[in-house]
Amino acid sequence: MTDFPAQSLSPLDGRYRAAVAPLAEYLSEAGLNRARVEVEVEWLIALTDNMLFGTTPLSEELKLRLRALYLDFGQAEIDWLAEREAVTRHDVKAVEYLVRDRLSKLGLDAIAELTHFACTSEDINSTSYALIVKRAVTDVWLPKLRTVIGSLHSLAAKHRDAAMLSRTHGQPATPTTMGKELAVFAWRLERVAAQVAASDYLAKFSGATGTWSAHVAADPKVDWPLITREFIESLGLGFNPLTTQIESHDWQVELYDRVRHAGGILHNLATDVWTYISLGYFAQIPVAGATGSSTMPHKINPIRFENAEANLEISGGLFTTLASTLVTSRLQRDLTDSTTQRNIGVAFGHSLLALDNLERGLREISLAEDVLRADLDANWEVLAEAIQTVVRAEIAAGHSSITDPYALLKDLTRGRRVGAEQLAEFVNGLDITDAAKQRLLALTPATYTGLAASLVDEA
């Protein structure tokens, strides 16, 4: 029954499977085992390339056939490993036996004893996890984040001049433009995306307690740190030379904190767009055949942003747990990291699901510029900031005898609505130069946006 989505315990493997399926290629149990086979095979090739223990380099044809063990990894291998692990009760040992079995079928029994040579399970695991997390981030998660950033850039450019009433503390405040506000999120996310893109992915390959003891015992003349470093780096990973039995996971802590940070910014985006929809600033584009409410036919609910918000909270909690747990290992090794790391895919899955909803949600909104204009026209009192600041400048220049311009404007505008005519009358009565008066009289809430539009261009 568990093969059916309706019976899945996690919604990521049921209801939301289509949205997160690309991650399963890497961060599923099958993806992890395929990477383990890859590491075992490539270590065999590295040992023979270095002609250790009387071996000679394999022919290119044999290397291709050997690499097919992980390149063509599929259901047959998944089933084989499940059956063998039921006996061994050890996942990495089952992978070793699979490689040995396939070596025999390839007629390579002569190098079978070099399978898993001098390795502890964590040599294989740290390398495999680094591979699958790196590939999941660079091939799936980061491109999806950049798609959302791209959507924000497009919307920001489209609405660079769309004047909008700000709401600081939820109250009417100095106008901005919708484009500039969306550009803020794009700018924030670009920074974190760059940090994620620059992440380290480290592995260790130094034996049971990180001392290369077994390696040296097998052949003390070999420069094992160099060979293992070259091996790890050949896989596109960074090498950690100083570890206990496990790679210390600090790179994972750094990565998950960065991804969680991105999630926090995305959560802020989701709640802000939801609020703009609530205010009527954004109208939601109807999707043919979709139902907003089971009883209220008129409704289009902002479900994309609500779904994103919830999934970002789940992924953020999981990434926090991953980071706080993986940073610690008792003495030379404990097993808490093993079961914890099996939830890496779950954390990225909820994050990817949120990104998918945000991407679709941003495509399904249109700016209601008439609502923005009406809101601005109903709040002329927001020009009080401009008036009192111009008066201050006039005082500083010796052009005005007004004292305490802030209090003057506070008495006029605080807690009350002030219309265009009332403000114009007030400005005309001020002790300031005619040039300053004309500059203020030309202002409207819709034009009091400063450099907002040019900031979009800069971003």
UniProtKB/TrEMBL annotation:
One Gene Ontology biological process: IMP biosynthetic process
Biological or metabolic pathway of the protein: Purine metabolism; AMP biosynthesis via de novo pathway; AMP from IMP: step 2/2; Purine metabolism; IMP biosynthesis via de novo pathway; 5-amino-1-(5-phospho-D-ribosyl)imidazole-4-carboxamide from 5-amino-1-(5-phospho-D-ribosyl)imidazole-4-carboxylate: step 2/2
EC number(s) stated in the UniProt entry for this protein: 4.3.2.2
Ranges for domain Fumarate lyase N-terminal: 15-308
Keyword list, A-Z: Lyase, Purine biosynthesis
GO terms assigned for molecular function: N6-(1,2-dicarboxyethyl)AMP AMP-lyase (fumarate-forming) activity
Record-linked Gene3D superfamilies: Fumarase/aspartase (C-terminal domain), Fumarase/aspartase (Central domain), Fumarase/aspartase (N-terminal domain)
Listed InterPro entries: Fumarase/histidase_N (IPR024083), Fumarate_lyase_CS (IPR020557), Fumarate_lyase_fam (IPR000362), Fumarate_lyase_N (IPR022761), L-Aspartase-like (IPR008948), PurB_bact (IPR047136), PurB_C (IPR013539)
Enzyme class, UniProt record, top EC level: lyase
Domain Adenylosuccinate lyase PurB C-terminal: 329-449
Purpose: Catalyzes two reactions in de novo purine nucleotide biosynthesis. Catalyzes the breakdown of 5-aminoimidazole- (N-succinylocarboxamide) ribotide (SAICAR or 2-[5-amino-1-(5-phospho-beta-D-ribosyl)imidazole-4-carboxamido]succinate) to 5-aminoimidazole-4-carboxamide ribotide (AICAR or 5-amino-1-(5-phospho-beta-D-ribosyl)imidazole-4-carboxamide) and fumarate, and of adenylosuccinate (ADS or N(6)-(1,2-dicarboxyethyl)-AMP) to adenosine monophosphate (AMP) and fumarate.
Protein name: Adenylosuccinate lyase
Source taxonomy: Bacteria, Bacillati, Actinomycetota, Actinomycetes, Micrococcales
